[in-house]
Write a structure and sequence with these properties.
The chain is an alpha+beta fold. 26% of the residues lie in helices and 27% in strands. The chain binds magnesium ion (2 copies). One magnesium ion (MG) binds next to strand 3 and strand 4.
Length: 238
């Protein structure tokens, strides 16, 4: 899973470096496809329940699961990129939201807060802690900044499948959840909205947007619980 995570980290870095006004989301997908091919990995997104691409690209009010295509990135957009890879049957999964050129102060704040909420959640992945402390920490950061946390989509266990039990909510669900053990691996992935947390799925059957049209950001890493605390497999400089 460390090896799969390093491939995903490289996809994060190379797609991030390609983001600028005038680039299409399908060009970002091609960047990811080339990294996966060069590293001898396989895509866990391509053909997942029929998903037609290697990454998800979700601009502005789109929360997650956007399909790369002819959308042209514009100055002032924010773009969420979600990517994964498989090495020898083991999965990595990670996401970030980046600015396209100069963006509004609220967009900057949304991205900073969402990223910080992810790392606050990751800090909770300690042996013998309870899983739902992750969501409590995410929620405190996001709502403390005046934003809302999406409820309809959550993080997950990950290993020989991309999505394994248990779910990892980004909010306190009313119970502490399972006790964390050394060797557990999770994908923690807060989705944070400027406005309400409500979501709508578009007619393409994939793209999820905010119901109120407000901006949304998404950050994700694949993390193991170790004796020394959390180890992030997908860490990259994005
Ligand atoms: Mg993901
Ligand atoms: Mg995920």
């Amino acid at each position: 899973m460390r090896r799969a995570g390093r491939v995903v980290a490289e996809i994060l870095e190379k797609t991030r470096a390609a983001i600028r006004p005038g680039v299409t989301t399908s060009e970002l997908d091609e960047v990811a496809r080339q990294v996966i091919a060069a590293r001898g990995a396989r895509s866990n997104f391509l053909n997942y329940h029929g998903f037609p691409a290697t990454i998800c690209t979700s601009p502005n009010e789109m929360i997650v699961h956007g399909i790369p295509g002819d959308y042209v990135l514009e100055e002032g957009d924010i773009i969420s990129v979600d990517c994964g890879a498989i090495i020898e049957g083991y999965h990595g999964d990670a996401a970030y939201t980046a600015p396209v050129g100069r963006v509004s102060p609220v967009a900057e704040k949304l991205m900073e807060v969402t990223r910080r909420s992810l790392f606050a959640g990751i800090d909770q992945l300690q042996p013998d802690n309870r899983l739902h402390e992750v969501g409590r920490a995410v929620q405190q950061v996001a709502e403390g900044a005046g934003f809302s946390v999406v409820r309809n989509y959550v993080g997950h266990g990950i290993g020989t499948a991309m999505h394994e039990q248990p779910s990892v909510p980004n909010y306190w669900p009313g119970s502490p959840g399972p006790k964390l053990k050394v060797g557990n691996v999770f994908a923690v992935e807060p989705m944070v909205n400027v406005g309400s947390p409500e979501t709508i799925e578009l007619a393409d059957g994939w793209s999820v947007v905010t119901k109120d049209g407000s901006l949304s950001a998404h950050f994700e890493h694949t993390i193991a619980v170790t004796e020394d605390g959390p180890e992030i497999f997908t860490l990259a400089d994005v």
